[in-house]
Amino acid sequence: MVRNGMGFNINDGFCELLFKEDGVYLCVYPPEGSGRRLDLNAVLDRLARKKVRDFDRVKVELAVRRADKVPVKIAEPQEEEKIDATVKVTVSPDKMKAYVTFTPPDNGRMLTMDEVLDELSKNGVIYGINRTNLENLIKYPVYNEMICIAEGTPPVNGENGRVEYHFDISRDHRPTILEDGRVDFRELNLIQNIEKGGVLCTLIPPTPGKPGRTVAGTDIPALDGKPAVLPRGRNVIVSEDGTQLIANISGQICYIDGKVSVFATHEVKADVDNSTGNINFIGNVVVMGNVLSGFTIEAGGNVEVMGVVEGATIKAGGDIILRRGMQGMGKGVLISGGDIIARFIENSTVEARNDIKAEAIMHSNVKCGNKLELSGRKGLLVGGSCKVGKEIVAKVIGSHLATVTEIEVGVDPTVRERYKAVRDEIIQIETDLRKAEQAINILKKMEMAGTITPDKKEMLAKSMRTRIYYSSRLMELKDELGQLEDKLQQEAYGRVRCHDIIYPGTRVAIGSCKMYVKENLHYCTLYRDGADIRVGPVDK
Fold first, then answer.
1. Is residue 189 over pLDDT 70?
2. Is residue 485 domain-shared with residue 449, that is, in the same domain?
3. pTM exceeds 0.85
């Protein structure tokens, strides 16, 4: 038989050449289901390979067009040219996989196991050959398809050394919400203290790598894990054996820019004003009063202000905690290497590497690397612009006056659609494989009992070919799915959660998708779905 030249499909139309005493006959079979019709050029190519002389082309064309399973005499009697099956070996560029492609025999014979192994050896494939799959493939061949038959062993790199911290480096600075809806910004439990001589962190050594091997039998070296480095900051020392970091003073632990430091705290008893001037301190700063307009605080650690911040500038390597809030008057600036926590922020420029948490942010320009959370009694975000890495959570966004409020969250997941298509195809192939396995099990029992009929035997061969083809395809799809998952994990998943109302005038961007709110939206989550922003129920 001959299949269409566009790739293997067990439902495609095919033809048979019959060499009889009174002449050469052509019998063309129609396709089944969604299969393709037999192409005239495929038949002509086969006639050429079989060296059929003086055939009637008009009858050939008519037989292909009709495809009615009726043998048509196309040439006078002649001896048949028998064609044996062939195999082509393809090795991947990285030499980690080898594939075989069989061409079908035409009244000739199929290759033997030894012949295929010899061809693999001639092409340098000597390692990782799956002999069981190869035996099945020779017994139930799949033609004109690349089937993976050998896989190398990839090297396993050693795990890098790591640092084990003896304190919490990812503390959740969540304020306490009282029963009446107010937020208690006094009980934050932010400070982690340590006594002089206390152990801050310990080095865990790396592990060696395990070498791999290509299908050509070549060893692939593996990388040993790299040793970690102690994140030494200020006021800490390294132990004598070099494996631990120890506090050199008693004070507060700060984890800033990947370094562990221990800082004492600088306390301002009243306001930051002309009496104190600007403050620049290596450690933590606590202001018991207000920070007046025009003044600057720069700290290597955390900054905590008990009063109100006016049009001032505060820059902290760690967190910024404003017990009351900030009335920036268009001049206020907050820049934090950690979190920003405030009761309210108004008419200010705010940047935080991690999270921002407040009761209300009004008419401000906000940049937040992770999550913006507006809770408490108001939970208000109105006016200005907010660019947030992962998620915005608020009660009210915008105002009934349709104040322009621009929010941007998340990144564009460029491979999300392909990921979904591959996952769906894997599910379908796994379903088809299960059906093929069930059919094979039933038919093999009939074969062992000696009750199998010729068409059931053909069905068994067809099911075996289907299993081999789908198994190979499934392996390729799972490799691709793993690569897509790695890419997706590197991207933020943006969403906006509103626990009350989003007013018109709000402009939302999630990745490359944009949405203009034109009517009130209540208790909802805005998320990206393909090329659109969807409105769903609010999730806790």
1. no
2. yes
3. no
